[in-house]
Write a structure and sequence with these properties.
This protein is 40% helix and 16% strand. The chain is built from 8 helices and 7 strands.
Length: 222
Amino acid sequence: MNSTRSFYKTSEQETYALLVQRHGEERQEKFAQACVGIAGLGGLGSHVAIHLARLGVGRIILADFDVVDETNLHRQHYTNRDIGQEKNEALLRQLREINPYIEYEGHHVRLDSNNIPFIFSMCDIICEAFDSPTEKAMLTECVLTQMVKPVLVGANGMAGIGSPNEMVVKHPMQRYYVCGDGKSDVVEMNTLFAPRVALCAAQQATVIMQLILKELNIDFAK
């Protein structure tokens, strides 16, 4: 027997009230006032964005030059319907379905040291979610030397099938946190599995959450 189902869309006030119910009013207000940028929308960045939308972060800025292809589907937060679309557009659609009341900004652009300070100028926190070590280094140097405000949350080491206990958070510099096992190299191992990539992304989202709330009560690796 076929049945039809109508979908109920919560209002902005209802959505905020539901988040307050789960997170608490003081914390939700901090989320709502925060601005987070995500550089790279692959296995890390796409999952981080989803977590932040579910937290109700007030403004999320996305940037990636790539389009979705079939090789992305095993670890990135995209589906077959997204193949051929710009990653920022495909991800924006998903985010708006989760929480349409957040302010989203998408950029289809290759990030470099010239446009990073402009695109992410309003951000409190920037998430580094690149695959390339060269791009990681470029973004890190740019944010830490050319920008005064944002804290950078990066990633290093999520390849292979190692123990989740190897995934740690390091704090090498005042405005810089790094998540991952710090050793598994994507190029050398050529193996990326969805659970471990998503785990690293969840670590990044957790650090971002704690930075927003100013509650960094997690054990940092030295």
